[in-house]
Design a protein that fits this description.
Layout (H helix, E strand, L loop, with lengths): L18 E8 L5 H9 L7 E5 L5 E3 L2 E3 L7 E2 L5 E4 L4 H13 L8 E5 L7 H9 L1 H4 L2 E11 L3 H7 L2 H7 L3 E5 L6 H14 L5 E4 L22 H7 L9 E2 L4 E8 L5 H15 L3 E8 L8 E6 L2 E2 L3 E2 L10 E8 L3 H11 L8
Parallel strand pairs: 1-7, 1-8, 2-6, 2-7, 8-9, 9-10
Antiparallel strand pairs: 3-4, 5-6, 11-12, 12-17, 13-14, 13-17, 14-15, 14-16
Helix pairs in contact: 9-10
């Protein structure tokens, strides 16, 4: 497990000055640019830096803005836009340096729009692994758009939209007005099978409540502890695995007893070393021996955020709860690994 060393000093207060980053992804034609255009019209979104990972012209705020790889365009709503044609790390570093030097607006959020065929995992990993970026930015959420008309066929034919849905914190269904109630119900069921813990909302012409898309990340400053439960999906019946097909599935492991932190990290190190590419996403609360509150862990494939120690538990439940979204890794494989290494006894559900 590639991560910074766990220390109690990683707290929410330390994240107070970090700039939240939202990743907007979705398959071809799902309406990503339309959604961003609508969001940028809101007064509370007038200090946003938008990074578009596309070539050619991009539509922003009803204008077609041609932006070269050397340019950062100030839009008429006060936002900043640039096109990513090279390295995301360099682009984010350059944005921050220009912001610090007063060369661009003092943006307070970054929105990254991926290409329709993109795997969002490398973008997430960039925000996890780069030491300089960790000092300036934090991942707030991954928003995946789903085209109600074409998604049923796309999810069967292509692997990219399946992974985009699996990695999402929020799912936004577009073009719902073009399909019937039965088709919408079937699509919602498919999305829940792939990612049962991601809330789903409908968006007509990109219109959706802003609160659904921002302030999602667990590391948000001044987040109330009960939000941790919603982030983890604890309000849902998650004691069994959810399977979309023979590869992508979601399951939750619960452990009653506190566990040594060293044993827990060893389990994840073994798992990521053997099956890192298939460990699509992991998130959860860990009851660590000797700690008053839980350790928050989340990772994408073989890379993990620095763990976050909470001062107290968000509720009465003190169990370790780990949500796994995997590709071809069954529940029992992970559960058996924890038992074999000795992180837990036989109390895993």
């Amino acid at each position: 497990m590639a991560t910074a060393e766990a220390t109690p000093s990683t707290t929410r207060d330390a994240l107070a000055g970090l700039i939240p980053v939202s990743i907007v992804t979705g398959f071809l034609g799902s309406g990503k640019t339309t959604l961003i255009n609508r969001l940028l019209r809101r007064p509370e979104m007038n200090r946003v830096a938008v990074i578009v990972n596309e070539l050619g012209e991009i539509g922003v705020d009803n204008d077609l803005v041609q932006v070269s790889s050397e340019q950062m365009m100030l839009l008429n709503n006060g936002c900043l836009c640039c096109v990513l044609r090279g390295d995301l790390q360099e682009t984010l570093r350059e944005l921050f340096i220009k912001r610090r030097n007063g060369e661009v607006i003092d943006f307070d959020r970054v929105v990254i729009e991926t290409t329709g065929l993109a795997d969002p995992a490398p973008v997430m990993q960039t925000l996890i692994t780069d030491a300089l970026l960790l000092d300036q930015y934090r991942l707030d959420c991954v928003v995946t758009l789903v085209d109600a008309v074409n998604a049923p066929g796309q999810l069967k034919q292509f692997s990219e939209p399946v992974k985009q849905v699996a990695l999402a914190d929020r799912l936004v269904v577009t073009k719902s007005d073009l399909v019937g109630e039965k088709q919408m119900g079937a699509l919602t069921g498919r999305l829940h099978d792939i990612n049962p813990h991601a809330p789903v909302r409908l968006a007509l012409n990109g219109d959706i409540e802003l609160s659904f898309l921002v302030g999602v990340g667990l590391a948000r400053v001044n987040a109330r502890l009960e939000e941790v439960e919603r982030w983890l999906g604890a309000e849902e019946d998650s004691d069994h695995g959810h399977r979309h097909d023979e590869t992508v599935q979601t399951f939750v492991l619960r452990f009653e007893r506190p566990m040594p932190w060293a044993a827990f990290t060893q389990c994840l190190e073994v798992l990521t070393a053997l099956r890192g590419p298939d460990l699509l996403r992991v998130k959860g609360l860990v009851n660590v021996e000797g700690k008053a509150g839980p350790m928050v862990v989340q990772g994408v494939q073989h890379l993990f955020h620095p763990p976050l120690e909470l001062a107290a538990w968000p509720g009465e439940d003190r169990c370790t709860r780990l949500v796994f979204i995997t590709r071809g890794i069954p529940r029992h494989t992970v559960s058996d690994l924890f038992a074999a290494i000795g992180a837990v006894g036989a109390s895993a559900s």
